Each structure stands twice: as C-alpha cells, then as structure tokens.
Amino acid sequence: MTIRIESFTGKNGEPYLQELAKLRIEVFREYPYLYEGSLVYEKEYLKSFLDTDGVILVVAFDGDEVVGVSTGMPLIAQLKPVQQPWLDNKEDVSRIFYLSESVLKKTFRGRGIGVQFFEAREAWAIQQGFAGATFCGVVRPTNDPWRPMNWVPLDQFWLNRGYLRKDNYLCHMHWQMVYEREETEKTLQFWFKELLPSPSSVAL
Ligand SMILES: CC(C)(COP(=O)(O)OP(=O)(O)OC[C@H]1O[C@@H](n2cnc3c(N)ncnc32)[C@H](O)[C@@H]1OP(=O)(O)O)[C@@H](O)C(=O)NCCC(=O)NCCS
Questions:
Q1: How many domains is the chain built from?
Q2: What CATH number does the domain containing 132 carry?
Q3: What is the pTM of this model?
C-alpha cells in the first residue's frame, strides 16, 4: 500500500469536496459522532469551502483512491456559534485558524496519516500568519451506553500534537444521531495550540 498525502488550498480543493462528504458520512457514523448522514446537510456544509479564503484540504490517497481528508479554514469564516466562545472571551478571532475535521477510513488508521493531517494544516496556518489553531470535539457522557468497549478517546492524540483543552470554551451544533428521529443540539469542546513561527522565519 502506497499512501500519498497532498494539500490543496483555496479552489484547488474543490475536486475533493464530494469525497469529503462521503467520508464524513461514513466516518462520522461511528462513535462518538453517530451522525446519521444527510446529503442535504452535507451540501450546505460543503458550500462553506467554496468561497472562503484560506481553506485547506489535506487528502490521503491510496493509489487513486481517496482514503482520508482533513480540512481547515480561518475561524473568522466559520459560523457565528463556532466563533462565539472566542468572541465572548474577547479573543482576536482573525488570528486563529480552525481545524474543521479529519476523516480517515478505518483500515488506514494508526500509520501516521492523522499526524500528517495536523502538520500540513498547521504549516499552512503558520504560512498564512495565524497565531493559533483550534478545533472542537463532541462531548459525550462518560457512562454513555453507545460507547463501544474498545473505544479510545482522541484526547491523548491531541495532547501529543500540542493541543490543550480550553476550559469553558464550548459550542453547540445540531445533527441527527443514528438513534434519533430528528436533529438535536450537541455540545462540543474546544482545544487550542499556539502556533509559533519557525526560528528561520523570525527576522533578526
Ligand atoms: C483522528 C484520525 C484522523 C487519526 O488518524 P490516524 O492516522 O489513525 O492517526 P496517526 O496514525 O497519525 O496517529 C495515531 C498514533 O499512531 C502513531 N503512529 C502510528 N504509526 C505511525 C507512523 N507510521 N508514523 C508516525 N506515527 C505513527 C502516531 O504517532 C500517533 O501516536 P501519538 O499520538 O502517540 O504520537 C482517525 O482516527 C479518524 O479518522 N478518526 C475518526 C474521525 C474522528 O474522530 N476525527 C477527529 C475529529 S474531526
């Protein structure tokens, strides 16, 4: 298996948006998102990638097949509920890059692709002059009956990438879970990392 990772910025990412939608529906059906995929929702969601400056799609290929996609965009381009906790805390949202998602087919996990997804998006954010990067993950109860026995939370993976949980920075999104009849509100927790420019790019 030969895996290739390529980054596409701005409009260059458009050819991969359909693959992103397919992977979101496939991967987010798993715990903890349990997302009952909807093409109508996906179509709306993908629109945000079409006309936004500063977007990046990092795509993992196995030969010609897309097996994973990871995305990011300036936080300021995100919907208001995503920006809100930052605005409430008087943070400069124009300096923060938002890591929207990483979706990788199950059989390709644990080979370092997820790490590369972070590295590529952070490098892009630094190049664009952002001072920090953030993302949010869904909050599920610890005694959740839907939690698979062997499920490992991604917290340690994120800590290893240098992200810290931002206490009290929460946002709310709506989607339908596989066991729900309609969309309900979900709470998501933000994580954050300062992005420092590499020493070689600092003027002496
Ligand atoms: C999150 C996700 C993208 C991670 O991808 P992944 O490719 O399995 O992650 P990696 O293999 O890069 O990293 C996992 C660990 O394996 C290690 N690893 C395994 N093989 C490796 C290799 N060949 N090279 C480098 N690191 C390797 C990594 O270092 C990392 O360990 P660490 O945190 O101790 O450093 C993937 O699990 C996924 O799609 N999950 C479902 C969707 C999801 O929850 N997305 C996140 C929210 S949007």
A1: 1
A2: 3.40.630.30
A3: 0.93
